[in-house]
Amino acid sequence: MAKLHLKRTPAEEAKRALRKARKAAKTARKRSHLSEEAGLHEQASSERRRRREVIDSDLDEEIYGPPPPPSLSSAHKPDYDTILSELEDARFREKMWDALRDDERLDGIDARFNDYAHVPDRWRANAASATSLEDQMDVDPRLMDDDTYAEWIRAGMWRRKHARQYEEEARMKAEKAARSARKKEMKAETARLEKVAEQRRKQKKRERESQREENARAEYDRKWKDILDPNAQHASSLSFGDIPWPLFVPKTHSDTAHSDSSSMTLEHFTATAISTFLIPISTISALAQDVGVSLPNHDRDKKEKKEKLRETMLRFHPDKFEGRVMRKVIETDKDRVREAVGQVARVINTLMEE
Length: 354
Description:
By secondary structure, the protein is an all-alpha fold. It contains 10 helices and no strands. Helices cover 68% and strands 0% of the residues.
């Protein structure tokens, strides 16, 4: 259905004409206001431009002399449309900056309000990890804020109302803490006793090893005295295992308490094995090695080491050994004995050069 257009009454026509007149007057006032602002802006700009020209002309006259006469061309006419658009752009930018500053100010106010937001401990997500009731009761109420003080009052009222329950919880908590402390003490004592027992086992093992090494060194010296004794009877009866070699005899797998010299090979004749046998380590040095501490060597130790190596070299020098001992070795073991003697001599030379 088409819209009906009714004819206006004379009163409505008068009101409509009045509104149009007011609107035209308002538009004229706005245009006149903009023209006045543009004129003022142009006047201020021309004044500043004139001052700069006067200053520049004075400087130019001082440097370059008087200016040339003005030209007869027509004066410059300002472009009011351009000036009006520039003013509108300036007003728009100023409004945008004002709005931005308002947003920053509101953000700061909101942040400050949020800093002072208080959430009671019983409503927080990590209430289980919050401070205990006893810790809150120990705090001086004069140092609390209003919300914390209210929480403190509620906790005190709860304690008075549920005194028996509170005492039972405190007793159970104390018993649990005591059990935990006893368990911790027992665990620490067990660890200490195990450490002491382990140290004793290591000490006994070290003592057994030290005694075994001392017995081996004593047996080594005794056998060499028997071999070098001219009155001893060794007529071609020495085997490879009967030779007193300067290293600890490896233990057999079947019986770790006994050793077998015949099981030795040339791989056993290393510088470390021979040095460990000939140069015993003191108890203090052994303990220092266990904890990873190196002690300085004294001159007396160096002298004893040199004498021991020299004595061993005299015993195992190939020429001397060939003349004194090799004739007493059985024929089947002579080649093996010669190889071992040469290996010992080379190791002793290396140790003496260190």
